[in-house]
Amino acid sequence: MWRSKSYGACLRPLFPVEARPLPYPLIQMFNPLLLHPIMSTAAASNSSSTRTMYKHLLSPSRRQAITHKRCTFVDFPPFGLILSCTSPLFLQLSNTINQCSAFVPSISLQRLLRPASICRITALLNTDFSPPALSLDDGLYLESETRIKRLCEVTKVLSKVVQFQSTLAFYQRKHGDLLSDALPSDNSFLIVVQNLEILSQCINSKREAIEASLWTILDDHPEQSESILRILVKKLSDDPNSINGKLPFVTLANLRTLSAGRWLDDEVVNYFVKKWCTQSGSTLGFNTFFACKILFQEPECINAREGFFTDADENTVRRWCAKAAVSLDTEWDSVFIPINESSTHWYSARIDFRVKRIDIFDSLRDRCIENRQKPLLERKNSKLMLVLMWLTDVLGRIRGEDTMLKNNPESDWVCDPHYKVHFQANSYDCGVHMLWHLRHLLEFRQVRVGAQCSSGHLRFNDSMAGKRLRLAQEMLTDAGLL
Q1: 291/255 same-domain check
Q2: How far apart are CA 18 and CA 338, in angstroms?
Q3: What is the distance between the alpha carbons of residues 392 and 385, in angstroms, rounded to a whole number?
């Protein structure tokens, strides 16, 4: 109990501190060791609970130190002597290698105990994954897909390896007073971990090589690609509910638009724009409704907006940006905008703050050739380009930059209303071309045509059947159906 002279005065105890007895239970709770010399017979019966309480009062580091001082040496073949506290870690490493061996039989613990180079690990992988055939037959597609799945599974298993080295270092620090030097088993452990990290790199390279080879063959054989695609769609049609609910906003009806000769719908476009831009980490991907709401006068995206833009328009853009940027881990520096014209044609626009460019990508040959022959202000995309310049100023302010494109002929930005692209050979592949424009922008920062594209599996083709099959595969894989 405490008493004060008046409100606001310093508080003082009612009795002197030295005159207040500390209750016995409080002594026991705060310092149980003080009771040992004068412990009564009744208190001795509670010594076990007192020791337990004392252990809990110890700091975690102190408890860990006591625990690790009790470790012993145990034999763990083929590593040899290890400390008993590290045996779960060594066992986890052995299990990880066994899981890898289920998919890559040439990999074993014995082969990983000595330092290995990338060439040696690659040679081991080649014994399990020989080079594929160069022609598309009935079994090549399925065989390649099986190999890719196996390699993806190994990648998942190896993802935990990055934690092994730091965990072993933690145990070694705890035994600093017990071990003057690292045990030979610890060195072997680190060699195996390093080899597994090399294995992970080699597996990714092998998977990418198999995928690139398969995709190139699919592009070179559009008839077979269309046949495989029809089989995939038919399997889904036999069980319409298999795809429903597996991917956000995507149904079987949406996925069917990837079939040969079909026009891609909004949900398929939105799915890949969001997924690929999110994976890029630096490109803001707007959905197909942004253009008709912000850039054009009507939902059909025919006539670009004219006149003055208000603060309300800018606030609307800010809300779209905030929503689209939620899925990005880093600050965005470019924007991709798909445009759906009258539900009959797809094309796109890109604003890139890093290279200071505004480009419009349209795969229709006649439109591009015809517009290039007209005066600049009479071209189809001239008014849209003016709107995109306003949008660039708004996006610049959101990024904290002052682009100042309005009434600024001295600006170092480049604006191209008809960037040179591969032209579509039919009336229905525009959506696939547009998505492939995005692939090039994310991969190369610009669309590359013909020999400019060094990656053969990323080149454009007159028939985009192989690209359609790859898009369908990706969606079905994401849905867990392949």
Answers
A1: yes
A2: 81
A3: 10
Alpha helices in 23-177 (DSSP H): 24-30, 41-44, 47-57, 60-69, 87-103, 109-112, 118-128, 140-158, 164-174
Residues 139 and 283 in one domain: no
Number of Cβ within a 10 Å radius of residue 119: 8
Handedness of CA 354, 360, 362, 366 (dihedral sign): negative
431 & 342 share domain: yes
pLDDT at 69 exceeding the cut of 80: no
Nearest Cα residue to 284 out of 438, 418, 432, 400: 438
pLDDT tens digit sequence for 122-146: 998 988 887 665 566 657 888 888 8
* pLDDT over 80 (residue 195): yes
Say if residues 232 and 260 touch (Cβ distance below 8 Å). Answer: no
Per the CB < 8 A criterion, the answer to whether 11 and 2 are in contact is yes
In one-letter notation, the amino acid at residue 8 is: G
The answer to whether position 187 is within a domain reads yes
Residues 202 and 292 in one domain: no
What distance in Å separates the CA atoms of residue 100 and residue 154, rounded to the nearest whole number? 6
Overall residue count recorded for the chain in this entry: 482
Buried b (16+ CB within 10 A) or exposed e, 230-255: eebbeebeeeeebbeeebeebeeebb
Q: Which amino acid, one-letter code, is at 295?
A: L
- What is the CB-side half-sphere exposure of residue 440 using CA atoms within 13 A? 26
Q: Are 168 and 86 in contact (CB under 8 A)?
A: yes
- Residue 327 has a pLDDT of 80
